Amino acid sequence: MRISFADSRPADSHCLAIAVAPGTLTGSGLSCLPEAAQSLARAAAKGHRFDGEAGAIAEFYGETDASQRRLLLVGVGNKNDYERAGAALAARLLTSGEKILVIDLTAIGAPDKAEAAVAMAFGALLRSWRHDAYRSKLDAKQRVSLEQIILVGGSARASDLWVDREAVAEGVMFTRTLITEPANVLYPESFVERCRHLEDLGVTIDVLDGDAMAALGMGALLGVAQGSARPPRLLIMRWDGTSAKGPLVALVGKGVTFDTGGISLKPPAGMEDMKWDMGGAGAVAGTMKALAMRKAKANVIGVCGLVENMPDGNAQRPGDIVTSMSGQTIEVINTDAEGRLVLCDALSWVQKTHSPKTIIDLATLTGAMIVSLGYEYGGMFANDDELAAQLSAAGEAVGDKLWRMPMGEAYDKLIDSPIADMKNVGPREGGSISAAQFLRRFIDDGVRWAHLDIAGMVWASKPGATWDKGATGYGVRLLDKFIADNIEIDEA
């Protein structure tokens, strides 16, 4: 999708959308249209019961600039939700047969029209993402036709603002692609290769194979991987955006590219969804792309523990005891509680090798998180109130919402083992919390840490504000905003 900004509408009779705020249909809201088209617009709005609600659309045909064209009114709502408005237009027109959409914001009463135009473009670009690589028989009406969006109004600054916003969109769409790919295409080795293009953006990539991880004592991660023919990988991505030494922030992602549950086999129904059990790693990779593309003034390291959890004759068994890189031993009660085994070694590795001040891990860790919060919030666990507040604010600002969950000694005792340092699961009750307590045991003193359980957020069964059914790209905007607001430094 090509996005551009202009001071005035092109002369050609492309499809035209007018951004409208509530209560402005009889005032200045339609002033960018000739009088005859304004009358048609008001009639269309009445017929659609449209009054500028966020994302609402009224469509009609009329004459502007001496030419007949398809016209749409799109609402921005009382809260000026330009992002949702842009997404609504993209959803309506993506396969409509229209190739070029012009969006006119000149009549909107936005205090910053450049920011409004960029937000609308951002929503449209995210909502236009599709993954049709494996669809060989799309008929004409199903194929994407929309190729370009031109936004009129605020162009003096919009093009400059768009550079950073487009970078974030690219990161989100990269994450969506990784999550959508089937497990026979995306597995630990191919995940690494999909990320190689980040080197062209200035990201330094290192990879540890199974032998290297064995030498480091990563028995927890390797225990998960031992049942698969696909060898594991630890992917390390570094973005050094400042002259300061060392990464200030570490992002650690669970990358189980397919999760059968291992010997503790999952039920067959719905198991195909487990291709997205690498959603945490996908979010880390997408964030690293966004940071690099917008040249963020921060030093960030992204670590992805990449494994496949399979139930072959060499697979880890319930009751096995493994030794983690930290030296702590773990009694494996349930092989389907594998994500925490992957993460604990990745957390130990990044602390031992890079000593970050702040660590944020992301994982589709527990189904219990969905029971607790549904599909509206990601769960957040943190050992630092300031970090939790910063992440909550970032999530609220971009729509990747978080809800902080409790932790404490009573929950921690639930994972004590009679024959090892800990078990990998506690009782069914409070399952998401005991999983977070497990990870907390691998965090060094003095390190700010947050664990984001995003099991309900990476995949959607219905369209959302800026996504269709499927991968949402959750986490990229959240992490990028957190880094932009709290970590980046001004070296000017």
Question: Any descriptors?
Answer:
492 residues, alpha/beta, Leucine Aminopeptidase, subunit E, domain 1, Aminopeptidase, 2 domains, eight-stranded mixed sheet, six-stranded mixed sheet, 33% helix
Would you write up a description of this structure?
The chain is an alpha/beta fold and 492 residues long. The protein is 33% helix and 21% strand. The strands form four sheets. It has an eight-stranded mixed β-sheet, sandwiched between helices. A six-stranded mixed β-sheet has the order 1-6-5-2-4-3, sandwiched between helices. Strand 11 and strand 12 (329-331) form a beta hairpin. The model has no long low-confidence stretch (mean pLDDT 95).
List the helices and strands and how they pair.
Elements: E1 2-6, E2 15-20, H1 35-47, E3 57-64, E4 67-75, H2 82-93, E5 100-104, H3 113-127, E6 148-152, H4 155-180, H5 188-194, E7 204-208, H6 210-215, H7 219-225, E8 233-240, E9 249-259, H8 279-293, E10 299-309, E11 321-323, E12 329-331, H9 339-354, E13 358-363, H10 367-373, E14 378-382, H11 385-398, E15 402-404, H12 409-412, E16 422-423, H13 431-440, E17 448-453, E18 459-460, E19 470-471, H14 476-486
Parallel strand pairs: 1-6, 2-4, 2-5, 5-6, 9-10, 9-13, 12-16, 13-17, 14-15
Antiparallel strand pairs: 3-4, 7-8, 8-10, 11-12, 14-17, 18-19
Helix pairs in contact: 2-3, 3-4, 4-8, 7-9, 8-14, 9-13, 11-14
